[in-house]
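For the sake of transparency, this paper describes our internal protein records without simplification. The tokens are whole numbers drawn from a learned vocabulary of local backbone shapes. One such record is reproduced below, unchanged from the form in which we store it.

. . .
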Amino acid sequence: MAASQNECVMTGAGAFRAKPAQRRLSRESAAVLVALVLVLSIAYAPGLAELFAPWNRMSAELSAATIAVAGLPVQVRDTLLIHPDGFCVEIVYSCTGLVPGLFILTWLFALRQGPWIKLIGLASGIGLVLGVNLLRLLVTYYVGATSPAHLGLVHDVLGQGAVVLSTAAFMVSWHYLSTARSWRGHRGHG
């Protein structure tokens, strides 16, 4: 009797070969672990912060534009977002969306999907995370300027939590969607 695709199969040496779904999960888990090591290396390695200075400035400019569109007064000085009342926020690399973007990029390359599905996933995942991150920066700036007592809660818990949850939700939903039957006939699969 032949084993189905989702069963463990005993090899000739008496060992069991993992299910294909388990191998895929292990590969994805390894990719997330690699991303975590890279992020921590970047965060704590001396001298690497300067590499991200242009990205930080670009993120500060984009955040300022978002804040201005929302109708709030803002000035940009290098990576600082400055409110006329004196409150300011510094944009550092952990504020830019690079960290969740790196997780999504690494995880997508670990998926056993075709290049088009990976590319669509990358565009939608990075777009989602950057959008949530811009909203987080807008809300953090607003709360810091209007209610500084709540800044810690909004920045450290709610804002960071929203980015982490949106990244995780994207990864789970994209895994489900990319393995759905409707994609299997897509020419980019496999």
Q: What stands out?
A: The chain has one domain: 26-184.
